[in-house]
Amino acid sequence: GRYTGDKPAGKGIAVLGDSHAMGWGVGDEETFSAELQRLSGRPVYNLAVSSYGTVRELMWMEKSGLLDTVDAIIIQYCDNDLEENVGFVPPSPQDAKKEFATITQARGASLSSELKLLNKGYWLTFRIPLSLLKIRLLPEPPKDFLPHYQPVVDAFSQHEALKAKRIIIFYSNAKGGKFRAFPAGKARQLPNVEFVDLNLERDDYYRIDDHLTSAGHNKVAQRLYELIRP
């Protein structure tokens, strides 16, 4: 709805994820969701919420009212999703209603306020001793995806309505961090779910911040489009 250009048509695509997919540090029109909409000509709904793990992302998808309008769901996974996926306790109906309202209001927040906060973070970083900054810029060693796999599968098992959708899961970790043994292809227990490593690199992320640059978002969109194009 917020993206410019020709009005898209056909069945839509939903994007779930955290701040990486939401587009922290870039404009709405620069996110991979916006670029994927331009490439595909289909509506792409960016439902990503900062700090959300897979469990809450799937809950948010079901509550969005968009299930009947999309036939594909793209999920950006991050290594910090594990804690939520393992230990999440569903909120009470009252708390869930409040959280849903909060999310809806937050989506309407201006980009300028986000950029002000980001800019403040940059200035703070420049005050960090150079030796610490160099450590922060070094790539982290790859993490094993095996402990992450079953919690993701278990999260999907709670959502029967999603089994009729094509689901693509890729990962984007802070500073381009890698996973070892990230699955390739369809999940055995979930034939509608496909894992894809987009081979993102450190240069696709800001040097100081942890998130994708506009060029990184563009790369994600191009590679996702290759997967969903007719």
Description:
The chain is α/β, with parallel strands linked by helices. The protein contains 9 helices and 8 strands. It has helices at residues 19-22, 32-40, 54-63, 82-87, 93-107, 111-126, 130-137, 146-156, 214-228, and strands at 12-16, 44-46, 70-77, 143-144, 166-171, 179-180, 185-186, 193-195. Strands 2-1-3-5-8-7 form a 6-stranded mixed beta sheet, sandwiched between helices. The protein has a two-stranded parallel sheet with strand order 4-6. The longest helix has 16 residues, at 111-126. The radius of gyration is 17 Å and the shape is globular. Mean pLDDT is 84; it is low at 1-5, 120-128 and 130-135.
Give the count of helical stretches: 9
Distance between the termini: 23 Å
Q: Which residue ranges are poorly predicted, with pLDDT under 50 across at least 5 consecutive positions?
A: 1-5, 120-128, 130-135
Please tally the β strands and state the result: 8
Rg (CA only): 17 Å
Measured by DSSP, the beta-strand proportion falls in 5-15%
With strands numbered from the N-terminus, the spatial order across the biggest sheet is: 2-1-3-5-8-7
Helix-and-strand structural type:
alpha/beta
Which series of helices and strands comes N to C? EHHEHEHHHHEHEEEEH
Tell me about the biggest sheet?
A: 6 strands, mixed
Assembly status: single chain
Shape type: globular
Q: Approximately how much helix is present in the residues? A: 40-55%
| Residue-averaged pLDDT | 84
